[in-house]
Amino acid sequence: MTNLSVVGLQWGDEGKGKVVDYLAGGFDAVARYSGGSNAGHTVVIGTSKHTFHLLPSGALKGKELLIGAGVVVDPVTLKEELALLPDDARGHLTVDARCSLVSPQDKELDGVLEEMRGATPIGTTKRGIGPSYALRALRLSPRVSDLVGEFNFASLSGFYQRLSIDPAGLVAWADESRKLLVEIMGDVGKRVVEIDEKGGSVLFEGSQGTLLDLLHGSYPYVTSTHTTASYIPVGLGIPPSLAGKSLGVAKAYTTRVGSGPFPTEIKGDLAERIRSVGNEYGATTGRPRRVGWLDLVALKYAVKLNGASELAVSKVDVLSRVGEFRVCVAYRRDGSDVSDFQRAQNHLGQVEPVYESPFPLHDLSFTHGFPRDGKKLVDYLEDQLKTRVRLVSYGEERSMTVEL
Ligand code: IMP
């Protein structure tokens, strides 16, 4: 089997964790290549719920777990997550030596920067993600390998002090981090190549969603790194030829956490209803997610950008319980319709969505086989997106997934 990536096609929270858990059985390892503990990938087995922020979601399948150089690692979160898993999970984990670390000071700085933005904050997760990536670009960030090297913590402390952030505790934090990370530090890129050379395959777990990509998303309301499949070779340190195919994940509607334009956003009672039926609250921060109709303009862009050759559609059950289904097929601005996301990208906040209600979604119960309206939805999406739907997820529990 060849390598495969699972990428989010919207503003994150598409259900990537569940899809990765579902597919992981067919792969030798699961690798994260970007983001950090801003992610919240949830896997529900029976009545127990596991939310992974840093560990790849293949952890519950006993797979080899890889955290690539493109990820920023918060050792405190990693330790907490490992403590919830059986002891052998740690033995299966390699964290790339080149990963930048997220310090408590980075989290504080994240909060300070949000305050500085005043009335227009990004609405970050305050997990220190932006500061950690920024420090890496400034070549100030400590990396995992620095825990055994000669890293100049005095100079980093001086940097935080200049920003009026108290550096106290930085050295103790580094000592704790060393205890956790030195044994499991390695070369993730080399390991992926090794697996490939032995005829094995790796599942790449994307984080956040395409529309939160630093370069290609709804800038400046984005995260601080790249969320698309194109980042896999860089974020892992592997040749592009090993990036494999990509499977895009989208909800049957759209959600967004934090600020920024959201053309299909719904407000009021209906939004409240979708939020409550779909349990749309952030897995990392608990914040209520903004909700909206399916945006095909954005989705077509995301499918193309990732070169997604197959799709997983999640939360189809929610819309049947809500009783309405609308789809945005174009954006209207100054009297003309645009269906090209890139053309609208700089004024997403000023467009009016043009909606279609293709058909009502009444029959979406999966208890007696694949429901009639589910088939209509799949056909419609395949036709619009010119991409095969491989998986349909109709509930949060692991078993509530159909492979077509
Ligand atoms: P940051 O990544 O914490 O800097 O946050 C930047 C933006 O990305 C904010 O709008 C966050 O709400 C959003 N974001 C970051 N991670 C996730 C995620 O895993 N799901 C959904 N939104 C996210």
Report on the structure:
The protein has 404 residues and is α/β, with parallel strands linked by helices. It folds into three domains: 4-96 and 184-247, 3-Layer(aba) Sandwich (Adenylosuccinate Synthetase, Chain A, domain 1); 104-181, Orthogonal Bundle (Adenylosuccinate Synthetase, subunit A, domain 2); 250-403, Alpha-Beta Complex (Adenylosuccinate Synthetase, Chain A, domain 3). It is built from 14 helices and 20 strands. A ten-stranded mixed β-sheet has the order 9-7-5-2-10-1-11-15-19-20, with helices on both faces. Strands 14, 16, 17 and 18 form a four-stranded mixed β-sheet that branches. A two-stranded antiparallel sheet has the order 3-4. Strand 16 (327-333) and strand 17 (336-338) form a beta hairpin. Helix 10 (268-277) crosses helix 12 (316-322). The longest helix has 14 residues, at 372-385. The radius of gyration is 21 Å and the shape is globular. The mean pLDDT is 95. It binds inosinic acid. The site of inosinic acid has 20 residues, from helix 5.
